[in-house]
Write the structure tokens for this entry.
Amino acid sequence: MGDALLEAARDLFLDPRVLGVILASAVYGIFIGSIPGLTATMAVALLVPVTFYLTPLEALAAVVTLEACAIFAGDIPGALIRMPGTPSSAAYTDDLYALSRQRGPSWPLGVSLVFSVASGIFGALVLIFLAKPLARFATSFSYAEYFWFYLIGLGCAVVVSRGSPLRGMLALFLGLLFSTVGMSSVHSQPRFTFGREELEQGINFIPAMIGLFGFSEVLRNLMAMGGPAGETVAKERRTGGEGLWRRWVIRPWMSVFGNTLPLLWVRKFQALLASCIGAVIGILPGAGADIAAWVSYGVSKKISKKPEEYGKGSLEGVIDSGSANNAALAGAWVPTLVFGIPGDSITAIVIGIMMMKNVRPGPRIFEEQAATVYGLYLVFILANLLLIPIGFLAIKAGSKLIKVPRRILIPAILVACIIGSFSNNLSLFDVWMMMGFGLLGFILERRQIPLGPVVLGIVLGGPLEEKFIQTMTAAKDPWTALFGRPIAVVLAVLCLALWLSPLLSRIVRRGRSNSGASLA
Amino acid sequence: MRFVCLGFLVFAGCRSDSSYPSRPILLVVPWAAGGGTDRVARQVAALLEQDLKVNVNVQNATGGEGVTGHSTGAFAKPDGYTLTLMTIEINMLRWRGRTKMSYKDFTPVILLNRDAAGIFVRADAPWKSLKELDAEIARNPGGLRASGTAIGGIWHVALAGWLIAAGRQPTDITWVASTGAGPALQNLPSRGVDLVCCSLPEAKTLMRAGEIRCVGVMAPERRVQFPDVPTFKEQGVDWSMVGWRGIGVPRGTSQRVLHVLVPALERVVKSERFLAYMSTEGFGPACEPPAQFEQSLEQTDARMKDLLTSRAFASISKGQFGAMAFPSILGVALGAALLLALLTGALKKPEAGAGYPKEAWLRFGEAFLALAAYALLSGTLGFLLTAGPIAFFFMWRLGTRALVAASIAAAVVLGFYGLFAGLFRVPLPRGFLGG
């Protein structure tokens, strides 16, 4: 191990080319992640032709850095304009945005950045030390386990919705129904397409997300413009008369990181739990950063002392689910390296890049190509550390954006909505789709129905149905299908407990108040 | 020269097709990013880009089991600027009644890969050969579960075809639909299924990891990269099924374009870089020029017609649970949640005084009109000439002075255009500003 590690470190740190590639991918990742409509997966796919000119380590370093930066950067438009840059940020966008309105965007984004880095490094450590046993665990998951697991992810989105869980359920079922539009992947039959060929591809979650969050926000802003002028996001406090050093270095640094480092210590256990949740979910092929964020948000709310803040600007929620989605990234590499089974859509492309570079994933990769693997480990840590300065600059640049007057900013966001919804599939139909979802988002918002679960439903509906039908066809009768395997039973019990928890807690509360009344 | 032309583009919309290619080429891929077909396509695109000295962008038009991508490519303008990475599904979709389109809607340009189907089992499975597997199927019809692709997809057809050739029913193995070979293979170690039918490169890594084993490959002879994998033929079964990938352009593309494109692609496919890539990925390399490719297409199509329209095949396309089962469950759940919410009053309008003035609803309508205008007009006018006025209109409407609004709107739109079309390779509509 020692020799290989040394070799890897030499390859990495003594070669300005590798460091250059990492830096360039970091900037690229931040860009892609912070533009709604461009996903980290798309960015990695765009990177593939570039990797022809890179060494294996450089190519993998580029991907790792890019995804780490993109997932964090997804928080930036969430905080600034309430439009999550990637679906992984959708769980806590409302909280981030509310916090930005209260105190300016720098501070909540700084918190998110610090915890993203910490949990990203934690995820890398999990990858480094536990890859083999964890990969074994991941391969014990089959159809039924995934079915229950997806239901748990969806249940979390319902449980966390503020106000009545019924509103969350409505949003979720709506999203799930949207996911059934188009060609059913298991039946190969078109559904709800009304004869339109564009609808056969189903509802793409990207225009849906941009419509629900972005366009509906534009609509709200346009409508409120005539009324009392409220700022979209609170401006940061300004004090004059200081030296250049203070003005350009100390003050920006303090505004982003001022109170965040102590927080790291205060919330160490919760963040650790969130990172563990993220890493484990990331390891499961077919479950990635987006579900990790939701599950962690749900757990966070359950164990929090201030659950009423969730959805209205809870820093705890931002920290915990922001940690989970970054920890999930490294997790996805575990089955990728050990079995060549991609843990998410990004690592699916990574396998292609690896093959191209003659890096052969498999249990023997740790002996045969130790230097590359250790190099990859080091890159994971390096990329996360690099995220601190790059993320800092991005946050500062983003906060400048907010100072642009709204009469300029809102039309620009409108153009961004158009281009973002169009560019994923190069389809004008998606622009219409985005319009429709914008209207829906506007209506749901007025009824205080949360938007996040709609997105989650659209993203997870397809896989959920697929696993359901697969479970049912693979076994002879439905009972052994759903409860025939030990891990499936455990997950089923967890899942049922979760879905029934709002009901149970109500009964418990009623029981308590009854007994209280009788005592009085 | 290109810069001169670019200059013309801006002013007059230079449509001269004196030289092909003079602008970016689009390569349509009917399958998702990261899959085998996509990886081959991106390799071809990168090499073709070097050869033709114009950008070659890959577009993943997924859905409908390949219908979407193939029809996007087939019905594009036959000007040589839209290529399609065709796959064997184009030979199958018509016979499964999924589309009217066929390989005849394309002018074949080059065939670049062939991969045979193989049958994979867990490393510790009791069946060492096809014969033993066949005996198990005979003993327990319908007891084994297999996966690899959607119902009626190429690997399902390969497996069912073997069963028919061996004198069994195609339903003697329960097929669990899957979105692709990757997710299906993952269910071998976890004991979700007993067999997976897919191509060798797809199963390569798990095979090398010692998790799974190939019982036989449906090819005429053994593959160089996989010398230990026996063929069906060696095991006394006369059945083969070989998938292919190739490149086509819409029917009606001019000879002038083909004279450039065919030799360029031939150079790419025969290049050392490409061959090395195919070999490390485990893809079976192949190279057939247009005439030969067309012939292969015709043969495969005839074979697929016989297979897919036969009586035995009619039974396989139905799963146990209908397409409406899941949406029905969801519909009921949504209805119940809605009813409960109405009964408990959870949906009451929270803030009564939050109504908007009439003026606000006017702007609300304008936003929709603007987007509709974009969706309808950007195809002809291009991105810049539609998004620009929209940005200007709202900036002006919200109280920015006209001159300021116009210049900021222009800057914003040009900036977005540069970022997306230049950096991210997203071909935004150019309208009459450029063909």
Remarks:
- The radius of gyration of chain B is 27 Å.
- Residues 1-17 of chain B have pLDDT under 50 and may be disordered.
- Residues 125 and 194 of chain B are 8 Å apart (CA to CA).
